[in-house]
Specification:
It comes from Oleidesulfovibrio alaskensis (strain ATCC BAA-1058 / DSM 17464 / G20). InterPro entries: ParD, ParD_sf, Ribbon_hlx_hlx. This is Addiction module antidote protein, CC2985 family. Keywords: Toxin-antitoxin system. The structure is a single chain. The protein is mainly alpha-helical. It has one domain.
Length: 84
């Protein structure tokens, strides 16, 4: 496989190898890809946790009778409009 890097990224890879932390550019790229995968999993988990908290709070409000009657399509359209 052949990849193209910007000059800045190529310099970054070369600096990592020159630092002695990595034996070659392939090791740097593999480590970067592993880090990216870990980061994506953590971001997904954080979003999922936030959604669970929101759902839990909403369920608690509904159980306490703190909810509004409304048209779900209108509510979703309003939320979509606020998001932009």
């Amino acid at each position: 496989m052949h990849i193209s890097l910007t000059p800045q990224l190529e310099d970054q890879v070369k600096r990592k190898v020159a630092s002695g932390l990595y034996n070659n550019a392939s090791e740097v790229i593999r480590e970067a890809l592993r880090f990216m995968e870990t980061h994506e999993v953590l971001v997904y988990q954080m979003k999922l946790d936030a959604l669970r908290r929101e759902l839990s709070a909403g369920a608690a409000q509904a159980e306490a009778g703190e909810f509004i009657d409304g048209d779900m399509d209108a509510i979703l359209a309003e939320a979509k409009e606020r998001r932009g």
